[in-house]
Every structure is written in C-alpha cells, then in structure tokens.
Amino acid sequence: MNRHLTQKLGFALLGVVSLLVVAPILLVVAAIVVQGAPALTWAFLTEMPREGMKAGGILPAIVGTLLLTLGTGLVAIPMGVGAAIYLAEYARDNALTRLIRLAIVNLASVPSVVYGLFGVGIFVLLLKLGTSIVAGSLTLAIMTLPVIISTSEEALRAVPMEFRTVSASLGGTNWQGIRRIVLPQALPGIITGVILGLLRSAGETAPILFTVAAFYLPVLPRSPMDQTMALPYHLYVISTQVPGMPLDIQFGTALVLLIIVLSLNLVATLIRSYFRRKREW
Questions:
Q1: Number of domains the chain contains
Q2: pLDDT tens column, 116-140
Q3: Contacts of 256 (CB under 8 A, 6+ apart)
Q4: Which domain holds residue 150?
Q5: pTM for this structure?
Q6: Residue 57 in contact with residue 43, Cβ under 8 Å?
Q7: N or C: which terminus of the chain has fewer CB atoms within 10 Å of its end residue's CB?
Q8: At what angle do helices 59-85 and 133-158 cross, to 10 degrees?
Q9: In a domain, 19, yes or no
Q10: Tens of pLDDT along 42-86?
Q11: Residue 103 forms part of a structural domain
C-alpha cells in the first residue's frame, strides 16, 4: 500500500514538474499567436519593407531564411551523414576515433557567436567570400555538423548487427549492406538529427550577423554572393534597434519564424513516421 501511494505521489510530482516546464512555453507561443496573427496578411508576407521597416512586408527576410536553411542543408547533410557512416561502420575503436567523438560532442556545445567569429575569419576574410549567402550557409553548416554527426551515428549504431551479418552472408559488400539495408533502417533517427540541426540554424542570429545578414535590404538576393535579410536578425533589429516599431510587426515577424520552424518539425515528423512504419525491427 505504501509503495502504491509512493508511486502515485511520484507520478503526481512528475506531472506538476512537466506542467511547470511546458506551461511557460505554451504561454509564450499563445502570446505570439494572439498578438502576431493580425499582422499576417498577404501584403505582410509578400511585400518589401518600407519606411525604415515600419511598413510593408518581410518578404526579403523570409526568402533569406529559406535560402540560408537550404544552403546549410546542402553542405551539412552530405558531410554530416558521411562522417557518421565512417565513424559508425568503418572507423576502428581507438584513441583517435574516441578523440574525434569527444571533439564532436564539445563542438555541439560551443556558443553560436564563436561560430560567427570563425565564419568571419575563414569564409569572409581568408577565403574572400565577403558577407554573402555562401559565407553564411557555410558558417551555419559548420555549426550544424556536430548535431547531425552525433545523431546519425547513434541511429546507425542502433541498427541490429544481424542486418549486416545477413547482407555479408549473401555476398554483399560492406558498402552494399550499408546503402541498401543499414541506411534505410536508420533513416528515422538520421532525419531527426538533420531537422534538429537545420532548426537550430534557422533560428540563429549571431552567425549570420557576422557573415550574411543585412540590417535593411529591401530587395531579394540575385546571387549566392549577395547579402540578404533573415528573420532572426530582422526580428532582433525591429525589436531593439528601430524606435517606434509597431508591436504587431514585431509579433508578426516572430510568428512567421515560429510557423517556419513548426512546419519543418511537422514535415520531419511525417517523414520519420513513414520510414519508421517501413522499418523491419
């Protein structure tokens, strides 16, 4: 009886703690939706900003965010998944690989402003890419790589060894077993890591502040070497740097960024669920 009562009290305590954690998040999201929804008009989403960003829309910031996220994915996904395949399937367990894994874990916790300074030094100044979409995407890709590598490696290692053994017993090479059997089984976990990394890059301000983001640029980029506006930096600017900015524009911009992030989450969940249903273990 005492044990049963203790279990109930434990569950109740966990429920209260969970509510205390989730409630502030829900309140913040509700406040953004309530105050930002009136600003979500077709003009707000498709027009250029005017009058020092106090009127018009946020189209350049939306396009810039999507382009940066796409560029980050094009660089980080092949490199991250490739590195994870090597570490999980080919690399020997020795001091060097353990050191590499430790470095990857440590890099995942480095503040984003450090990546921004790294991007300025390497991509903007040394490689002379200037403040451009290419420099911003490469910086965000470097920042995203540790998350993708770590989660992808764990997903690959979670696939039972029997799949590899059966593939080898049927005459398949190591790469054929990885490509046709292991990778499809690990896809749900890999997709989760990829989306987590891309979501982080889509919401970061410090790296793009140094490498690509423009304070006010009411035109769409015409080349990967152009600067662009981006939603995270644009939200920071209109919230702190522009006096007299209407609150509905501020909350509307935050709501658009929130919608983009939640949409990516929804797409990732649907894709992950699809491949999880096809998984054979």
A1: 1
A2: 999 999 999 999 999 999 999 999 9
A3: 36, 40, 45, 58, 62, 231
A4: 58-278
A5: 0.88
A6: yes
A7: N
A8: 40
A9: no
A10: 989 998 988 878 888 899 999 999 999 999 999 999 999 999 999
A11: yes
Q: Which phi and psi angles does 213 have, rounded to 5°?
A: -70, 135
**DSSP β-bridge partners for residue 55:** 50
Cβ atoms of 234 and 61 within 8 Å: the answer is yes
Residue owning tokens 């077993």: 177
Say how many residues make up the chain.
281
Residue 47 placed within a domain: no
Please provide the DSSP assignment of the chain as one string.
-HHHHHHHHHHHHHHHHHHHHHHHHHHHHHHHHHHHGGG--HHHHHSPEETTTTEE--HHHHHHHHHHHHHHHHHHHHHHHHHHHIIIIIS-SSHHHHHHHHHHHHHHTS-HHHHHHHHIIIIIIIS---SSHHHHHHHHHHHHHHHHHHHHHHHHHHS-HHHHHHHHHTT--HHHHIIIIIHHHHHHHHHHHHHHHHHHHHH--HHHHHHTB-SS--S---STTS-B--HHHHHHHHHHTSTT--HHHHHHHHHHHHHHHHHHHHHHHHHHHHHHHH---
